[in-house]
Amino acid sequence: MIELTVDGRPLTAPAGQSLAAVLLQAGRGVLRDSPSGAPRGLYCGIGVCQECRVVVDGEVVRSCVTPAAAGMRVTTGRT
């Protein structure tokens, strides 16, 4: 198990699991809002649609293809 931070809150997760899976398991199905305000989250699950974008340590990533790692600081578009 690893520890990371999501929107300033600690979270424990299995190492190597996709960040999207970790967030979904933690009840974080909505990861950001579209420019029109519609909720967005995991959609394709293979890195094509980019709906699951989050910021990890200052860099925008697709959470469905990014493995969770110890010490990650994840910021979603929602708090």
Describe the structure.
There is one protein chain. The protein has 79 residues and is mainly beta. It has a single domain, classed as Ubiquitin-like (UB roll), CATH 3.10.20.30. The chain contains 1 helix and 7 strands, in the order E-E-H-E-E-E-E-E. Strand 5 and strand 6 form a beta hairpin. The termini are far apart.
Query: Can you list the strand order of the major beta sheet?
Result: 2-1-7-5-6
Helix content: under 10%
Assembly type: single chain
Amount of beta strand: 35-45%
Low-confidence stretches: none
Q: What class, by secondary structure content? A: mainly beta
CATH superfamily label: Beta-grasp domain
What overall form do the CA principal axes indicate? globular
Secondary structure layout plus pairing:
Layout: E1 2-6, E2 9-13, H1 19-25, E3 30-33, E4 39-41, E5 53-56, E6 59-62, E7 73-75
Q: What labels describe this entry?
A:
9% helix, 79 residues, two-stranded antiparallel ribbon, 35% strand, Ubiquitin-like (UB roll), mainly beta, five-stranded mixed beta sheet
Summary, kept brief:
The chain has 79 residues and is mainly beta. The chain is built from 1 helix and 7 strands.
